[in-house]
Amino acid sequence: MAKKQVLVACGAGIATSTVVNSAIEEMAKEHKIDVNLIQIKIAEVNAYVDTADLLVTTAMVKTSYPFPVINARSFLTGIGLAETKDQILDELKK
Amino acid sequence: MAEFYLDETLVFLQMTGTREEILREMAENLVKENLVEASFVSGIIEREKEYPTGLPTASSISVAIPHTDIEHVKKNAISIALLQEPAAFQVMGEASMETPVSIIFMLAMQQSHAQLRLLRDLMNFFQDETTLQVLYESKTKEDVVKLIDRKLSLSASKGGDR
C-alpha cells in the first residue's frame, strides 16, 4: 500500500490543525498505517492538489478537490468523533 | 506545561455586546497589556469572518476560540470572556450555521506547531460539561484564572525570560 499524503488544514495553520494533526498521527500509529501528514493553512491546499490523497480540515472548503475532504471539527468538540475517525481510517486503508 | 500567559487583566465577566464588539474589546485589551501588536485587533476580527471559530459542545454552552496569524503576537497568551447573554458566532467549518457562544477563549499564539499541549487540554476542557458550567458560573476573575490554570497547566510569566 502506497504511503498516503494527508493534508491537515485550518485557517491559520497553527491552532486547530495542530490538534487534528496529532490525533491522526496517533490513530495511524495505532493502526500501523504509514502516513505522510502535512499541516498547512487552508489557503495553501492548492499547492498539493496533484499529490494529496485526503484533506482533513476544520475550515470551510469552498473549492472542489480531486481528493476527499473530511470535516474535523469533531476532534475539537468530541461530538461525532468516532464517525470522523472511521471516515479517515477508511480513506487511509484504501 | 503550556507556556501561555493568563492573569486577571485578561479575564472579562458579564461581558455584553455583539460578536465584533466583544472581539474588539478583548483584542484591544491584549494590545494594551503589550502581549500582541496593534494589528492583532483587525487580524482577529477579519479572521473570524473568514474562518469562524464557534464550537457547539456537548453541553448547552457553546464556546469560541478566536485566534489569528502568529506575526501579530508578541507573547503567548489567553484571554477569557464570560458573556452575560450568548453572542451569535458562526460555527467552525460551517458557513450557514450559527451557535450562541457563552464563553470566549481568545488565543494569542506566537509559534506554530508548538502549542499542542495547551490546545489538547483546551479541547478536553470543552468536552467536560461540568467544568464548563463551573467556569461559566464563576463570580470573580480570580476564580476564572484559578480554574483555567488548574485545567490547562499554564506556566508563563508576563515579562522577560521564562
UniProtKB/TrEMBL annotation, chain A:
<dbReference type="InterPro" id="IPR036095">
    <property type="entry name" value="PTS_EIIB-like_sf"/>
</dbReference>
<dbReference type="Pfam" id="PF02302">
    <property type="entry name" value="PTS_IIB"/>
</dbReference>
<protein>
    <submittedName>
        <fullName>PTS galactitol transporter subunit IIB</fullName>
    </submittedName>
</protein>
<dbReference type="InterPro" id="IPR013011">
    <property type="entry name" value="PTS_EIIB_2"/>
</dbReference>
<feature type="domain" description="PTS EIIB type-2">
    <location>
        <begin position="4"/>
        <end position="94"/>
    </location>
</feature>
<keyword id="KW-0808">Transferase</keyword>
<dbReference type="InterPro" id="IPR003501">
    <property type="entry name" value="PTS_EIIB_2/3"/>
</dbReference>
TrEMBL record, chain B:
<keyword id="KW-0762">Sugar transport</keyword>
<dbReference type="InterPro" id="IPR016152">
    <property type="entry name" value="PTrfase/Anion_transptr"/>
</dbReference>
<protein>
    <submittedName>
        <fullName>PTS sugar transporter subunit IIA</fullName>
    </submittedName>
</protein>
<dbReference type="InterPro" id="IPR051541">
    <property type="entry name" value="PTS_SugarTrans_NitroReg"/>
</dbReference>
<dbReference type="InterPro" id="IPR002178">
    <property type="entry name" value="PTS_EIIA_type-2_dom"/>
</dbReference>
<feature type="domain" description="PTS EIIA type-2">
    <location>
        <begin position="3"/>
        <end position="151"/>
    </location>
</feature>
<dbReference type="Pfam" id="PF00359">
    <property type="entry name" value="PTS_EIIA_2"/>
</dbReference>
<keyword id="KW-0813">Transport</keyword>
